[in-house]
């Protein structure tokens, strides 16, 4: 499985805003974006004073930002886009709905992980079950009615003991239902556009792939 191994802080600096890829660190003074809020590279400081942006550049940046928020590589992102095209409704909204349904994103949205990369790692380590079956595929797409639980073997883990004490059901989006006591959740419905917590411009993504 391919994975990004460079500094994720560079991704935030490249997009010119925090993508919250390192969880709690993003809210602390240690955040690299706070220290260097300009693109990485030799000419990063000059790039922030660019006066004019072409349509192509805005579309590209919107696409890259969406990919990076959800931690998806280009080939898989294109596959999600084709899937969204074949669904009824607006392609851009369909794309975000598919991305929100990823298991690693669901774990993050439930508050069990402080970031999507951390959620992806927890899933890959086999700590979760979907409908009673062990699932270690971060890209697994949940459906309405699915039940996600922390495996019994993992509940004794110190991390999950601490998480269980600090889970706040009030932060969970409406399309998910969390039972903090049992470390389980249920998918009540498919996510809608208003449930997306990131500032994304899906129409520019559609325009990029429609060139």
Briefly say what this structure is.
The chain is an alpha+beta fold. The chain has three domains: 1-52, Orthogonal Bundle (Ribosomal Protein S4 Delta 41, Chain A, domain 1); 64-100 and 197-211, Ribosomal protein S4/S9, N-terminal domain (Ribosomal Protein S4 Delta 41, Chain A, domain 1, Orthogonal Bundle), CATH 1.10.1050.10; 102-190, Roll (Structural Genomics Hypothetical 15.5 Kd Protein In mrcA-pckA Intergenic Region, Chain A).
Write out the CATH superfamily name of the largest domain: RNA-binding S4 domain
Q: Largest sheet at a glance? A: 5 strands, antiparallel
Helical fraction: 40-55%
Shape: globular
Number of strands: 5
Q: Which regions contain 5 or more consecutive residues with pLDDT less than 50?
A: none
Q: By helix and strand content, what is the structural category?
A: alpha+beta
Strand order of the largest sheet: 2-1-3-5-4
Strand content: 5-15%
Supply Rg.
18 Å
CATH class of the largest domain: Alpha Beta
Please give the count of helices.
Answer: 11
Task: Output the helix-strand order.
Answer: HHHHHHHHEEEHHEEH
* Oligomer type: single chain
CATH architecture of the largest domain: Roll
Task: Please report the distance between the alpha carbons of the first and last residues.
Answer: 30 Å
Mean pLDDT over the residues: 84
CATH topology of the largest domain: Structural Genomics Hypothetical 15.5 Kd Protein In mrcA-pckA Intergenic Region, Chain A
